[in-house]
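Standup notes
- HV: blocked on the assembly model, inputs below
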Amino acid sequence: MEHDIDTLMPEALISLDEPPAEKEACIEHLLDLAVDAGRVEDREAALSALLEREEQTTTGVGMGIGIPHAKTDAVMRPSVSFARSSAGVDFGAMDDEPATLLFMILVPEEGADEHLEILSSLSRTLVHDEVRGRLREAETEAEVQRALAEAMN
Amino acid sequence: MERVVTVVPEAGLHARPAAKFVETVQEYESDVSIARVDNEGDRVAAGSMIAVTSLGVRCGEDVRIIAEGEDAEAALDALEGVLTTPEDELDS
């Protein structure tokens, strides 16, 4: 992946706190990580783009992973936020597994290719049991970041 | 049994078309896998949403779908239908 993980997902976008267990509230929680880091110009526009995307079809891709995402001009540059849930959040995945690893991808409107690229490299990384295990066990934000950075290289 | 299909939905094999593709795979008994024609090394199980998403197939790219099983031909017909339907014409 061409994106540098420190730029795409700085530690400020990683949270190890328990997120809300309900999907929409959880999406807002992930969005607020990006808002608080000053990466979102228009929170409401970003939220509606995310929820609109959820309406099309689930972003629960299975294996306990949820990847809500949107292309929106509410952001200036691509951002990925991370949270993990011990309770699990129902993201409507086809395998019925609640999502415990949550990633939110926000990409500017014109970044269609970038969007697909981030989504695919994240998915490629998360297919591996070992990577998911490291993300679940990480004790610091830096460990989460490192686990992803190493897997994506 | 295999088939090469050019992906039609504008956003590529992603979101609704990808979900529809995976759901369709699950309706058949056959084992189905998918890879880009120019990257067979990345062949993945077609019945897994995360695996299909990991391919990042764009609109206009060719994929090779391989199905093994008694209903392989019917599965390939149905999957070709999903991949060649523009997203706005896809039934949910």
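- HV (later): unblocked. Chain B touches chain A through 21 residues (CB under 8 Å). Chain B has one domain: 2-87.
- Next: hand off to the docking folks.
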